[in-house]
């Protein structure tokens, strides 16, 4: 089976990271969690003295998307490194803007068009258009706010802590739980607006350009959502 590049889209709390992690284990592909990667950079020690990282930290903690040109550069570099390993890749929520996806400036931006395109062109170059699959996981706004407001993640491995387990301890590694700076209702509302205005247009463009788009209901339990994703992929994945 050809190596694939899979993109998980959906509003905050849709379960993109969980589904990407499940797929990475099932298909033996690399899960590139863009949000976690960016968070590790903007909350690193270097962010205290690096003016670029400091500004991106402000954007990140306010629920705004980070500067598209900066994000595209770091994600493209990481993607090419993953490709060198010979593995496929699954992204959770990336690329997030038209510039990151296609190298196209957003409305009102003074950025110039990127001649070589964005991450989608990079993925085409590496994996081929037919091997790029986009999943859109849908939940309503109320569910997004509720899920994110109560979400806890492990401070060690970063995995979500399910409500059925001890709310203070990770069931995977035993690490202590923490709450992300992004997960409060007001920030979540900002993130929802960012998704609608800046990320959803990417999906519309991908549909117009005849990329494979699979629509998934994100309201059931994660394992049920995962069953939907698996059923839309090749039967070979079930073996």
From TrEMBL:
Keyword Disulfide bond included in the entry's annotation: no
Residue intervals passing through the bilayer: none
Catalytic activity annotation: AMP + ATP = 2 ADP
A molecular function GO annotation: AMP kinase activity
UniProt keyword annotations, A-Z: ATP-binding, Kinase, Nucleotide biosynthesis, Nucleotide-binding, Transferase
GO cellular component, one term: cytoplasm
Localization: Cytoplasm
Coarse class of the protein's main subcellular location: cytoplasm
E.C. designation(s): 2.7.4.3
Tree of life domain: Bacteria
InterPro entries the record matches: Adenylat/UMP-CMP_kin (IPR000850), P-loop_NTPase (IPR027417)
UniProt similarity note: Belongs to the adenylate kinase family.
Subunit structure: Monomer.
Protein name listed in UniProt: Adenylate kinase
């Amino acid at each position: 089976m050809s190596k694939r590049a899979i993109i998980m889209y959906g509003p905050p709390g849709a379960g993109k990271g969980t589904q990407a992690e499940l797929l990475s284990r099932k298909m033996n592909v690399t899960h590139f969690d863009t949000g976690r990667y960016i968070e590790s950079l903007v909350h690193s020690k270097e962010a205290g003295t690096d003016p670029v990282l400091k500004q991106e930290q402000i954007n990140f903690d306010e629920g705004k998307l980070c500067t598209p040109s900066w994000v595209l550069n770091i994600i493209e570099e990481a993607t090419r490194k993953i490709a060198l390993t010979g593995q496929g890749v699954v992204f959770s929520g990336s690329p997030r803007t038209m510039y990151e996806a296609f190298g196209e400036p957003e409305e009102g931006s003074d950025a110039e068009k990127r001649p070589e395109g964005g991450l989608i062109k990079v993925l085409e170059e590496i994996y081929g258009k037919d091997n790029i699959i986009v999943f859109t996981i849908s939940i309503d706004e109320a569910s997004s706010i509720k899920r994110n407001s109560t979400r806890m993640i492990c401070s060690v491995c970063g995995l979500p802590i399910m409500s059925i387990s001890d709310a203070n301890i990770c069931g995977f590694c035993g690490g202590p739980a923490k709450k992300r700076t992004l997960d409060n209702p007001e920030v979540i509302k900002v993130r929802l607006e960012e998704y609608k205005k800046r990320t959803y247009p990417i999906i519309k463009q991908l549909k117009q350009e005849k990329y494979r788009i699979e629509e998934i209901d994100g309201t059931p339990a994660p394992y049920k959502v995962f069953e939907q994703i698996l059923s839309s992929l090749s039967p070979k994945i079930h073996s």
